[in-house]
Description:
Blueprint (H helix, E strand, L loop, with lengths): L11 E2 L4 E3 L4 E2 L3 E4 L2 E4 L3 E6 L2 E6 L11 E9 L3 E5 L6 E4 L21 E9 L5 E4 L6 E3 L3 E4 L5 H5 L4 H10 L2 E4 L4 E5 L2 H16 L6 H12 L13
Parallel strand pairs: 3-7
Antiparallel strand pairs: 1-6, 2-5, 4-5, 6-7, 8-9, 8-11, 9-10, 11-12, 11-13, 14-16, 15-16
Helix pairs in contact: 2-4, 3-4
Amino acid sequence: MERRNARQTREIVVPGDVLDGSGMKPGENAYVMDGKVRASVMGVRNVFQNTVGVIPLRGCYMPTSGDTVIGVIVDIGPSNWLVDIGAPYPAPLHVNEVPWKVEFGDTSRYLNMGQVVLLKVLSVDESKKINVTMKDSGLRRIEGGRLVKISHSKVSRIIGKSGSMISMLKNMTDCRITVGQNGMIWIDGEDENADVATEAVKMIEAQAQSGNLTDRVRAFIEKRLPQEEEDYEEEEE
């Protein structure tokens, strides 16, 4: 007799579907109506502790005020730069929002086409106009390393519960890793280590809806980069 897979199948939902009616709190991409938690986007029903939400299956990154993002300079004006952050429209970065004193028309001396920057989203207005800044702690030009693009909806899995997954990736691969909320990830380290870190990130993206993900990622890295075993807390599904 064929054994049934014990792993719980994730439920696909569409906007308006009831996610819970027993008093759970709404999580990401969910809202409450008539005392029931409902889905606001199409995706996979996701339960975490006492919250229930939806992991989107697709869709463009929509910036939110306070997001830290990684972008690429795609155009240069006399008083600003246009940055591709994976949103529907490029984000203008004004000379007043960089940590240098830039004279009018001198923008290309500081940031040029194709350069990578770490930014923060200041605001998004009703017309979806995006304002970004580099004038905050840790924001900077990004030099060297490599960029990895994943779905923005999988960023929370890359970070993990209380930062558990990203900490494990950094420690086990000995790489510097910066994760943007827009799904752009910067990885910097020795070539072999960075290769493994990149593959691990792609593994997490591909298997984000699976259980025991932390254990499988740890085993993958240990196989590729043998090291002393350390304990990492498994994140809850």
